[in-house]
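Recall the central idea of this unit: under ordinary conditions, the amino acid sequence of a chain determines the structure it adopts. In this exercise we apply that idea directly, starting from the sequence alone.
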Amino acid sequence: MRFRKFDDTCPPGGESGSFISPVQAILGIVLLTSLGKIAINPVLAPLARETGLQAWQVGATVSGAALLIALSSQWWGRRSVAIGYKRVLTLSLWLTLLALSLFTMVAQFGMWGWFAPAWLFVSFFVLRGVLYGWSMAAIPPTAQAYITDITTTESERVRGMAGIGAAQSIATVGGAVLGGILAIFGLLAPLVAAPLLVVASLLLLLALPRAPRRTVRTMAPRMSMFDKRVFPYLVVGFFMFTAVCFPQIILGFIIGDRFNLGVSQTALWTGVALLAAGVGALFAQLVLIRHLTWGPHRLLRVGLLVLFVGIVLLIPHLNMWVVSLSMFVQGVGTGLAVPGYSAAPTMLVKDSEQGALAGLLWGNNALSYVVTPTVAGMFYGWHHDVPTVVSALILVLPLGMMFLHPRLAQR
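Accordingly, the structure predicted from this sequence is:
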């Protein structure tokens, strides 16, 4: 990847004496913070049972975090351009560390029975939902704005976005494994590990150059989601992420019910299937994109087609290996499509608008996860095949747009 020279973003070696480059530091921060988030997920359900919370309260907490990410991503993205990437990441990581540390402490108090379930839910919602969601919302758009700032061509930008996606895919695979291993030592072990990963992220900030002090700070402009330059991409992205979310949310139920498995076997095979999805995404981002010379629109178009095939494979009641194959294919499709989705609109806006655009794109991703978990569960209650069929049908709209929309189809 080739870099331009910027006063506060990308001296090739970062700060004097830094052992890694700024780009490696940015991707490392994305990896570590995502790893901590995903490592917590496997213990949320047993933690709820241990502390007397209901399943809907855990779901509300997770949805609350997604909503805060959707609402605040552009706010953070604009400030990353206006006051510097390092300053925004520093504030975000310290707030994330505070949220996770307090969440761990409150969880321990709940397990000791010091909090009534109602107060515990409020504490969880404020700490793991509102504060954690708001602080974590800064990291992906700031990373994307930084990559956009230091790349000049479509191919460089696609590889940069693939690097962010690969960091998150590695975290998806590694976080699930790490959370499961740490849970052997108790429910609090993953909760303790998550803040430590944030501390490691704070150390990586040393590799980022210090932003210069400015006598006049101009806030980056806002960007409307209805801006005609980016609105088609937001529509495609929203339906793409919604379609991806449906099978992931109910995958454990699908595996347990279709094959009549017990709790431990269901957890095992669900982990295998999710691992296959992560491996598929990594294969696309680290191998295919590096060797293909496709532009972002072609990556998005082909990725959506591959994702559609993967979801269709999940509809018939075939054996477990087909389920895992379906998730692998879905991972490949997502791994191709998301870097294309992230890179394509960045070529259409001004440099001063890149932070706002990055916030819109990542907020759009989070928005699809606000209501989809609830809706997917409701559909599954009606009939076990409804969520996967609906997921495939949802992809028809973005696929049609990629082939028929004047701006998307001509590239």
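The chain has two domains: 22-210, 224-411.
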